[in-house]
Write a structure and sequence with these properties.
13% strand, globular, 15 helices, 3-stranded antiparallel β-sheet, nitronate monooxygenase activity, TIM Barrel, alpha/beta, 8-stranded parallel β-barrel
Protein backbone atom coordinates (compact mmCIF):
# COMPACT_ATOMS: atom_id res chain seq x y z
CA UNK A 1 0.00 0.00 0.00
CA UNK A 2 2.11 2.87 -1.27
CA UNK A 3 1.25 6.02 -3.20
CA UNK A 4 3.17 9.24 -3.98
CA UNK A 5 1.80 10.80 -0.77
CA UNK A 6 3.87 8.34 1.24
CA UNK A 7 7.03 9.92 -0.15
CA UNK A 8 5.67 13.45 0.35
CA UNK A 9 5.10 12.89 4.07
CA UNK A 10 7.64 10.18 4.86
CA UNK A 11 5.04 7.59 5.87
CA UNK A 12 4.71 3.87 5.11
CA UNK A 13 0.98 3.74 4.39
CA UNK A 14 -1.32 6.47 2.97
CA UNK A 15 -3.64 6.21 5.95
CA UNK A 16 -4.42 9.58 7.57
CA UNK A 17 -6.15 9.40 10.95
CA UNK A 18 -8.08 12.34 12.35
CA UNK A 19 -8.49 12.09 16.12
CA UNK A 20 -8.94 14.39 19.13
CA UNK A 21 -6.59 12.08 21.08
CA UNK A 22 -2.85 12.65 21.01
CA UNK A 23 -2.38 9.03 22.11
CA UNK A 24 -4.23 7.75 19.04
CA UNK A 25 -2.42 10.18 16.73
CA UNK A 26 0.98 9.12 18.04
CA UNK A 27 0.14 5.42 17.76
CA UNK A 28 -1.04 5.80 14.15
CA UNK A 29 2.14 7.66 13.20
CA UNK A 30 4.33 5.07 14.92
CA UNK A 31 2.47 2.36 12.98
CA UNK A 32 3.31 3.96 9.64
CA UNK A 33 0.30 6.20 8.97
CA UNK A 34 -0.15 9.90 9.65
CA UNK A 35 -1.90 10.77 12.90
CA UNK A 36 -3.70 14.12 12.75
CA UNK A 37 -4.59 15.76 16.06
CA UNK A 38 -7.89 17.65 16.20
CA UNK A 39 -7.38 20.94 18.03
CA UNK A 40 -10.95 22.16 18.47
CA UNK A 41 -11.17 20.81 22.04
CA UNK A 42 -8.32 22.99 23.28
CA UNK A 43 -9.50 26.18 24.98
CA UNK A 44 -6.17 26.80 26.68
CA UNK A 45 -3.29 27.55 24.27
CA UNK A 46 -0.81 26.33 26.87
CA UNK A 47 -2.55 22.94 26.98
CA UNK A 48 -2.29 22.59 23.20
CA UNK A 49 1.37 23.52 23.34
CA UNK A 50 2.00 20.85 26.00
CA UNK A 51 0.07 18.28 23.98
CA UNK A 52 2.03 18.96 20.80
CA UNK A 53 5.26 18.76 22.79
CA UNK A 54 4.08 15.35 23.98
CA UNK A 55 3.44 14.36 20.34
CA UNK A 56 6.91 15.57 19.37
CA UNK A 57 8.36 13.27 22.02
CA UNK A 58 6.16 10.18 21.52
CA UNK A 59 6.06 9.64 17.76
CA UNK A 60 9.57 8.17 17.48
CA UNK A 61 10.48 10.96 15.09
CA UNK A 62 7.62 10.00 12.76
CA UNK A 63 5.51 12.78 11.17
CA UNK A 64 2.10 13.93 12.35
CA UNK A 65 -0.49 16.52 11.40
CA UNK A 66 -2.85 18.98 13.05
CA UNK A 67 -6.51 19.72 12.28
CA UNK A 68 -8.04 23.15 12.93
CA UNK A 69 -11.55 24.56 12.47
CA UNK A 70 -11.37 27.85 10.59
CA UNK A 71 -13.87 29.36 8.13
CA UNK A 72 -12.56 30.89 4.91
CA UNK A 73 -14.33 34.17 5.63
CA UNK A 74 -13.25 35.90 8.82
CA UNK A 75 -16.43 36.33 10.90
CA UNK A 76 -17.25 39.30 13.04
CA UNK A 77 -17.00 38.00 16.54
CA UNK A 78 -16.61 39.45 19.98
CA UNK A 79 -15.76 37.68 23.18
CA UNK A 80 -17.41 34.44 24.25
CA UNK A 81 -19.56 36.57 26.58
CA UNK A 82 -20.75 38.69 23.65
CA UNK A 83 -21.64 35.58 21.68
CA UNK A 84 -23.41 34.08 24.66
CA UNK A 85 -25.75 37.05 24.79
CA UNK A 86 -26.96 36.13 21.29
CA UNK A 87 -28.27 32.74 22.39
CA UNK A 88 -32.09 32.93 22.82
CA UNK A 89 -33.51 32.12 26.22
CA UNK A 90 -35.88 29.67 24.52
CA UNK A 91 -32.92 27.54 23.47
CA UNK A 92 -31.31 27.62 26.89
CA UNK A 93 -34.57 26.58 28.48
CA UNK A 94 -35.02 23.71 26.01
CA UNK A 95 -31.54 22.35 26.76
CA UNK A 96 -32.10 22.54 30.53
CA UNK A 97 -35.51 20.87 30.34
CA UNK A 98 -34.25 18.16 27.99
CA UNK A 99 -31.34 17.28 30.25
CA UNK A 100 -33.73 17.04 33.18
CA UNK A 101 -36.15 14.84 31.22
CA UNK A 102 -33.32 12.54 30.08
CA UNK A 103 -32.05 12.17 33.64
CA UNK A 104 -28.63 13.70 32.96
CA UNK A 105 -27.07 14.77 36.28
CA UNK A 106 -25.10 17.99 36.70
CA UNK A 107 -21.33 17.82 36.75
CA UNK A 108 -19.67 17.43 40.11
CA UNK A 109 -18.55 20.70 41.68
CA UNK A 110 -15.32 21.87 40.11
CA UNK A 111 -15.72 19.73 37.00
CA UNK A 112 -17.44 22.32 34.86
CA UNK A 113 -15.77 23.55 31.72
CA UNK A 114 -16.34 26.58 29.53
CA UNK A 115 -17.77 26.09 26.09
CA UNK A 116 -15.41 24.77 23.44
CA UNK A 117 -13.98 27.99 22.02
CA UNK A 118 -11.99 26.23 19.30
CA UNK A 119 -14.92 26.82 16.96
CA UNK A 120 -14.12 30.56 17.03
CA UNK A 121 -11.97 31.94 14.22
CA UNK A 122 -9.68 33.83 16.57
CA UNK A 123 -9.00 30.74 18.68
CA UNK A 124 -8.33 28.63 15.58
CA UNK A 125 -5.71 31.19 14.56
CA UNK A 126 -3.99 30.75 17.91
CA UNK A 127 -4.08 26.98 17.38
CA UNK A 128 -2.32 27.45 14.05
CA UNK A 129 0.41 29.66 15.54
CA UNK A 130 1.09 27.12 18.28
CA UNK A 131 1.11 24.20 15.86
CA UNK A 132 3.62 25.84 13.54
CA UNK A 133 5.99 26.23 16.49
CA UNK A 134 6.18 22.42 16.59
CA UNK A 135 6.79 19.96 13.74
CA UNK A 136 3.54 19.05 11.95
CA UNK A 137 3.89 18.14 8.28
CA UNK A 138 0.22 18.84 7.53
CA UNK A 139 -2.40 21.36 8.61
CA UNK A 140 -5.94 20.21 7.78
CA UNK A 141 -8.99 22.44 8.00
CA UNK A 142 -12.33 20.86 8.83
CA UNK A 143 -14.32 23.74 7.28
CA UNK A 144 -12.76 23.76 3.82
CA UNK A 145 -10.22 26.35 2.73
CA UNK A 146 -8.75 28.46 5.49
CA UNK A 147 -8.05 32.11 4.60
CA UNK A 148 -5.36 32.52 1.94
CA UNK A 149 -2.95 34.20 4.35
CA UNK A 150 -3.15 31.12 6.59
CA UNK A 151 -2.32 28.85 3.64
CA UNK A 152 0.64 31.08 2.80
CA UNK A 153 1.79 30.99 6.43
CA UNK A 154 1.76 27.20 6.40
CA UNK A 155 3.66 27.04 3.11
CA UNK A 156 6.28 29.43 4.50
CA UNK A 157 6.90 26.86 7.25
CA UNK A 158 7.13 24.03 4.71
CA UNK A 159 3.79 22.58 5.86
CA UNK A 160 1.18 21.30 3.41
CA UNK A 161 -2.49 22.23 3.74
CA UNK A 162 -5.47 19.90 3.35
CA UNK A 163 -9.14 20.86 3.26
CA UNK A 164 -12.37 18.89 3.38
CA UNK A 165 -14.74 19.08 0.43
CA UNK A 166 -18.24 17.69 0.01
CA UNK A 167 -18.64 18.56 -3.67
CA UNK A 168 -16.40 18.99 -6.72
CA UNK A 169 -17.04 22.74 -6.85
CA UNK A 170 -15.74 23.10 -3.30
CA UNK A 171 -12.61 21.15 -4.19
CA UNK A 172 -11.91 23.44 -7.16
CA UNK A 173 -12.30 26.48 -4.93
CA UNK A 174 -9.85 24.99 -2.43
CA UNK A 175 -7.26 24.40 -5.14
CA UNK A 176 -7.68 27.95 -6.41
CA UNK A 177 -6.95 29.21 -2.91
CA UNK A 178 -3.70 27.25 -2.73
CA UNK A 179 -4.77 24.13 -0.81
CA UNK A 180 -2.41 21.20 -1.50
CA UNK A 181 -4.56 18.15 -0.70
CA UNK A 182 -8.31 17.65 -1.00
CA UNK A 183 -10.19 15.42 1.42
CA UNK A 184 -13.29 14.09 -0.35
CA UNK A 185 -15.63 13.77 2.64
CA UNK A 186 -18.55 11.53 1.72
CA UNK A 187 -22.05 11.53 3.19
CA UNK A 188 -21.27 8.42 5.28
CA UNK A 189 -18.64 10.22 7.34
CA UNK A 190 -18.90 11.26 10.96
CA UNK A 191 -18.84 14.91 11.92
CA UNK A 192 -19.34 17.65 9.33
CA UNK A 193 -20.33 16.10 6.03
CA UNK A 194 -22.16 16.92 2.82
CA UNK A 195 -24.87 15.14 0.86
CA UNK A 196 -22.90 13.07 -1.70
CA UNK A 197 -21.80 9.49 -0.95
CA UNK A 198 -18.13 8.53 -1.25
CA UNK A 199 -18.65 6.18 -4.22
CA UNK A 200 -19.77 9.18 -6.27
CA UNK A 201 -17.87 11.99 -4.59
CA UNK A 202 -14.32 10.65 -4.73
CA UNK A 203 -14.12 10.19 -8.51
CA UNK A 204 -16.02 13.44 -9.02
CA UNK A 205 -13.35 15.34 -7.10
CA UNK A 206 -10.42 13.36 -8.55
CA UNK A 207 -11.56 14.17 -12.07
CA UNK A 208 -12.31 17.80 -11.23
CA UNK A 209 -8.95 18.71 -9.67
CA UNK A 210 -6.81 16.66 -12.06
CA UNK A 211 -3.80 14.39 -11.55
CA UNK A 212 -1.54 16.98 -9.94
CA UNK A 213 -3.70 17.48 -6.83
CA UNK A 214 -3.74 14.54 -4.39
CA UNK A 215 -7.16 13.48 -3.07
CA UNK A 216 -7.87 11.55 0.12
CA UNK A 217 -11.05 9.50 0.23
CA UNK A 218 -13.09 9.90 3.42
CA UNK A 219 -16.37 8.57 4.74
CA UNK A 220 -17.26 4.97 5.55
CA UNK A 221 -13.67 3.69 5.60
CA UNK A 222 -12.97 1.15 8.31
CA UNK A 223 -11.45 -1.85 6.56
CA UNK A 224 -8.71 -2.68 4.09
CA UNK A 225 -11.30 -3.47 1.43
CA UNK A 226 -12.69 0.04 1.78
CA UNK A 227 -9.19 1.51 1.56
CA UNK A 228 -8.67 -0.44 -1.67
CA UNK A 229 -12.01 0.79 -3.01
CA UNK A 230 -11.09 4.40 -2.29
CA UNK A 231 -7.75 4.08 -4.07
CA UNK A 232 -9.52 2.36 -6.98
CA UNK A 233 -11.71 5.46 -7.27
CA UNK A 234 -8.60 7.59 -7.79
CA UNK A 235 -7.67 8.69 -4.28
CA UNK A 236 -4.01 8.66 -3.23
CA UNK A 237 -4.87 7.83 0.36
CA UNK A 238 -7.65 7.72 2.90
CA UNK A 239 -8.77 10.06 5.66
CA UNK A 240 -10.19 8.05 8.55
CA UNK A 241 -11.80 9.15 11.79
CA UNK A 242 -14.56 7.10 13.35
CA UNK A 243 -12.64 3.82 13.52
CA UNK A 244 -10.12 5.35 15.93
CA UNK A 245 -12.89 6.09 18.44
CA UNK A 246 -12.99 2.35 19.08
CA UNK A 247 -9.38 1.98 20.18
CA UNK A 248 -7.77 1.41 23.54
CA UNK A 249 -5.72 4.58 23.18
CA UNK A 250 -8.88 6.67 22.82
CA UNK A 251 -10.00 5.62 26.31
CA UNK A 252 -7.46 8.03 27.83
CA UNK A 253 -9.53 10.91 26.43
CA UNK A 254 -13.05 9.82 27.37
CA UNK A 255 -12.71 7.53 30.37
CA UNK A 256 -16.36 6.65 29.70
CA UNK A 257 -17.70 3.12 29.44
CA UNK A 258 -20.96 4.60 28.13
CA UNK A 259 -19.42 5.55 24.80
CA UNK A 260 -17.97 2.06 24.29
CA UNK A 261 -21.31 0.44 25.09
CA UNK A 262 -23.03 2.79 22.64
CA UNK A 263 -20.80 2.22 19.62
CA UNK A 264 -20.26 -1.54 20.05
CA UNK A 265 -24.02 -2.16 19.92
CA UNK A 266 -24.78 0.35 17.14
CA UNK A 267 -25.56 -0.60 13.56
CA UNK A 268 -24.79 1.38 10.42
CA UNK A 269 -28.34 2.74 10.61
CA UNK A 270 -27.86 4.24 14.07
CA UNK A 271 -26.52 7.64 13.05
CA UNK A 272 -28.22 10.86 12.05
CA UNK A 273 -27.07 13.93 10.10
CA UNK A 274 -28.15 16.98 12.10
CA UNK A 275 -27.16 20.53 13.02
CA UNK A 276 -27.59 20.04 16.76
CA UNK A 277 -23.89 19.50 17.50
CA UNK A 278 -22.30 22.61 15.96
CA UNK A 279 -24.89 24.43 13.89
CA UNK A 280 -23.64 22.87 10.65
CA UNK A 281 -24.79 19.46 9.33
CA UNK A 282 -22.81 16.76 11.10
CA UNK A 283 -23.33 13.02 11.49
CA UNK A 284 -23.76 11.85 15.09
CA UNK A 285 -24.70 8.68 16.88
CA UNK A 286 -28.49 8.55 17.09
CA UNK A 287 -29.53 8.74 20.75
CA UNK A 288 -32.31 10.14 22.91
CA UNK A 289 -30.45 13.49 22.86
CA UNK A 290 -30.52 13.81 19.05
CA UNK A 291 -34.13 12.54 18.96
CA UNK A 292 -35.18 15.24 21.45
CA UNK A 293 -34.06 17.93 18.98
CA UNK A 294 -36.18 16.34 16.24
CA UNK A 295 -39.39 16.30 18.30
CA UNK A 296 -42.28 18.62 17.55
CA UNK A 297 -41.84 21.89 19.39
CA UNK A 298 -38.05 21.67 19.64
CA UNK A 299 -36.26 24.85 18.55
CA UNK A 300 -34.18 24.93 15.38
CA UNK A 301 -30.44 24.63 16.01
CA UNK A 302 -28.56 27.93 16.01
CA UNK A 303 -25.83 28.77 13.47
CA UNK A 304 -22.18 28.05 14.20
CA UNK A 305 -20.62 28.92 16.64
CA UNK A 306 -23.71 29.74 18.75
CA UNK A 307 -25.06 26.18 18.73
CA UNK A 308 -21.80 24.78 20.02
CA UNK A 309 -21.64 27.36 22.79
CA UNK A 310 -25.24 26.49 23.67
CA UNK A 311 -24.71 22.73 23.97
CA UNK A 312 -21.07 22.49 25.09
CA UNK A 313 -21.88 22.21 28.78
CA UNK A 314 -24.76 19.83 28.03
CA UNK A 315 -22.41 17.56 26.09
CA UNK A 316 -19.93 17.61 28.97
CA UNK A 317 -22.70 16.52 31.33
CA UNK A 318 -24.07 13.89 28.94
CA UNK A 319 -20.72 12.29 28.28
CA UNK A 320 -19.72 12.38 31.95
CA UNK A 321 -22.92 10.58 32.86
CA UNK A 322 -21.89 7.56 30.80
CA UNK A 323 -25.44 6.74 29.68
CA UNK A 324 -25.14 5.02 26.26
CA UNK A 325 -28.75 5.92 25.43
CA UNK A 326 -28.01 9.64 25.61
CA UNK A 327 -24.33 9.99 24.63
CA UNK A 328 -23.45 12.89 22.29
CA UNK A 329 -20.75 11.87 19.82
CA UNK A 330 -19.96 12.48 16.13
CA UNK A 331 -19.47 9.15 14.35
CA UNK A 332 -19.89 7.85 10.82
CA UNK A 333 -21.96 5.01 9.43
CA UNK A 334 -18.92 2.74 9.80
CA UNK A 335 -19.92 2.51 13.48
CA UNK A 336 -21.84 -0.65 12.55
CA UNK A 337 -18.48 -2.42 12.09
CA UNK A 338 -16.93 -1.09 15.31
CA UNK A 339 -17.82 -4.07 17.47
CA UNK A 340 -14.85 -4.26 19.81
CA UNK A 341 -12.15 -2.08 21.38
CA UNK A 342 -8.67 -2.78 20.02
CA UNK A 343 -5.19 -1.22 20.08
CA UNK A 344 -4.38 1.24 17.30
CA UNK A 345 -1.51 -0.97 16.08
CA UNK A 346 -3.91 -3.88 15.54
CA UNK A 347 -6.36 -1.70 13.60
CA UNK A 348 -3.54 -0.43 11.36
CA UNK A 349 -2.19 -3.95 10.79
CA UNK A 350 -5.64 -5.21 9.80
CA UNK A 351 -6.17 -2.31 7.38
CA UNK A 352 -2.89 -3.04 5.63
CA UNK A 353 -3.33 -6.83 5.57
CA UNK A 354 -6.92 -6.73 4.29
CA UNK A 355 -5.94 -4.16 1.66
CA UNK A 356 -3.37 -6.61 0.36
CA UNK A 357 -5.90 -9.43 0.22
CA UNK A 358 -8.42 -7.23 -1.59
CA UNK A 359 -5.93 -6.17 -4.24
CA UNK A 360 -4.77 -9.77 -4.69
CA UNK A 361 -8.35 -10.93 -5.20
CA UNK A 362 -8.83 -8.31 -7.91
CA UNK A 363 -5.63 -9.44 -9.59
CA UNK A 364 -7.01 -12.99 -9.69
CA UNK A 365 -10.26 -11.76 -11.24
CA UNK A 366 -8.32 -9.83 -13.86
CA UNK A 367 -6.42 -13.00 -14.65
Amino acid sequence: MRTPLCDVFGIEHPIFAFTPSEHVAAAVSRAGGLGVLGCVRFNDPAELDRTLTWLDDHTDGKPYGVDIVMPMKVPTEGTSVDLGSRIPEEHRRFVDETLLRLGVPPLAEGEGREGVLGWLHSVARSHLDIALAHRPVLIANALGSPPVDVIEQCHAHGVQVAALAGAAKHALSHVANGVDIIIAQGYEAGGHTGEIASMVLTPDIVDAVGPDVPVLGAGGIGSGRQVAASLALGAQGVWTGSIWLGTEEYRSLTGSSGWEAAFTRATSSDTVRTRVYTGKPARLLKTRWTEAWAEEGAPDPLPMPLQNLLVADAHNRINASGDPDVIAMPVGQIVGRMNEVRPVADVMADLVEEFGRAVSSLDRIRG
